[in-house]
């Protein structure tokens, strides 16, 4: 759970990937999200953002 009920943070566990492979996978996920949620999503880290904007916080609540 994020800072409000409409915010949800999802952490996706993966096997060890190098940075280039992780970036490709993240872009695939971002593209899929863009098709379903054109405005209400964000994937981090994002190579198109400055480092100061590539910040994510720990979740407020964990659902298992």
TrEMBL record:
Protein name: Uncharacterized protein
Species in which this protein is naturally found: sediment metagenome
């Amino acid at each position: 759970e994020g800072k409000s009920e409409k915010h949800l943070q999802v952490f996706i566990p993966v096997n060890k990937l190098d940075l280039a492979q992780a970036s490709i996978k993240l872009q695939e996920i971002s593209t899929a999200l863009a098709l379903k949620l054109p405005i209400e999503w964000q994937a981090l880290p994002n190579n198109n953002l400055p480092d100061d904007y590539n910040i994510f916080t720990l979740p407020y609540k964990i659902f298992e």
